[in-house]
Amino acid sequence: MDILEDMRVQWAVYWPPGPLSDEATRTFGEPVELLVRWEEVTEMFLDRQGNEQVSKSKVYVGEDLTELGVLWLSPAVADNSVGSGLAELVSESDPFANPKAYEIRRFDRIPTLDGDEFLRIAYL
After folding, report:
1. CB of 8 closer than 8 Å to CB of 60
2. Are 55 and 41 in contact (CB under 8 A)?
3. By C-alpha distance, which of 13, 35, 21 is closest to 100?
4. What pLDDT sits at residue 57?
5. pLDDT of residue 87
6. Which residues of the chain have pLDDT under 70?
7. Whole-number pLDDT of residue 37
8. What are 57-71's pLDDT values in tens digits?
9. Which residues face 119 on adjacent strands?
10. Mind spelling out the 3-state secondary structure of 59-89?
11. Which one of 12, 16, 108, 124 is most buried, counting C-beta atoms within 10 A?
12. 85: number of Cβ within 10 Å
């Protein structure tokens, strides 16, 4: 039993940040479904510039994500097949058109004691 895998029982959709367009507007890559543990908690944290921030949510994921990417919690549960969260999206191309889609403002990657796995946390 691997607690880092077993705790992720919800589906989320992740949009990686894309390159800036000619108009300096933000773009995003293709949405990807991830198994996550999404906790709606307010927690103080320091962003990469050293500014105090308050999270809307803290999301545990199984892969490395990029700050400025976007996460959205799907109403689908982990027992459903992959793709069910994507079907619930209002927009695949504009992550912020989906209610409660949030920008990743900090991402932490913490090794386990034996160093063979990582606890990955995205702060929204």
Report:
1. yes
2. yes
3. 13
4. 96
5. 81
6. 1, 21-24, 76-84
7. 95
8. 999 999 999 999 999
9. 110
10. EEECCCCCCCCEEEEEEEECCCCCCHHHHCC
11. 12
12. 22
Alpha helices in the chain (DSSP H): 3-6, 84-87
Residue 34, both tokens: 């991830």
Which residue range(s) make up the domain with 92? 3-123
If one counts the domains in the chain, the total is: 1
Strand locations in 1-124, DSSP E? Answer: 10-15, 32-39, 44-46, 52-54, 58-61, 70-77, 101-103, 106-111, 118-123
Retrieve residue 75's tokens. Answer: 């109403």
Question: Two tokens at 55?
Answer: 């999270």
Torsion of CA 62, 67, 19, 82, to 10 degrees: 30
Q: How far apart are the first and last CA of the chain?
A: 28
